[in-house]
Automatic annotation (TrEMBL):
Protein's name according to its UniProt entry: GH10225
GO molecular function, one term: zinc ion binding
GO CC, one annotated term: nucleus
Location of this chain's protein in the cell: Nucleus
Domain C2H2-type: 7-36, 43-71, 72-101, 101-121
Keyword field: Metal-binding, Nucleus, Repeat, Transcription, Transcription regulation, Zinc, Zinc-finger
Record-linked PROSITE patterns: ZINC_FINGER_C2H2_1, ZINC_FINGER_C2H2_2
Single GO BP term: regulation of transcription by RNA polymerase II
Coiled coil: none
Main location: nucleus
Pfam families listed in its UniProt record: zf-C2H2
Length: 121
């Protein structure tokens, strides 16, 4: 089955093959050395779960794959959550605030009332 795939990994001992050049290119990144001193932030697409190393690449992906260039990013340090809709960012931002909604049964607190309701069910 792999013999029909045109794009093969050239790394010694790997031998993986792909139908598309882009898939091989993405795979080749798995063979790269990782610098332990370099931060490893990744940017995930909320629509299709693809992950990108750079926010610029994610923006280009949104534009070409999902028809949207507007991305709203959480400004809380080390969060890196991104959303296509501003209302989803606003709802997410509440998760960084005070947990005002507490469960009477177990005492667990939630930033949003709908999260407490979901917890109770």
């Amino acid at each position: 089955m792999d013999e029909n795939k045109s794009f093969r990994c050239s790394e010694d001992g790997c031998g993986k093959a792909f139908w598309f050049k882009a898939a091989l290119k993405r795979h080749m990144n798995t063979h790269k050395e990782v610098d332990p001193d370099e931060p490893t932030i990744s940017w995930g697409c909320s629509e299709c779960c693809k992950v990108f190393a750079k926010v610029e690449t994610l923006r280009r992906h949104y534009k070409t794959s999902h028809g949207s260039v507007q991305i709203y990013t959480c400004e809380v340090p080390d969060c890196n959550q991104m959303f296509q809709r501003k209302d989803n960012l606003t709802r997410h931002a509440a998760s960084h605030g005070d947990n005002k909604h507490s469960c009477e049964t177990c005492g667990k607190s939630f930033a949003r009332k709908d999260a407490l309701t979901r917890h109770k069910t």
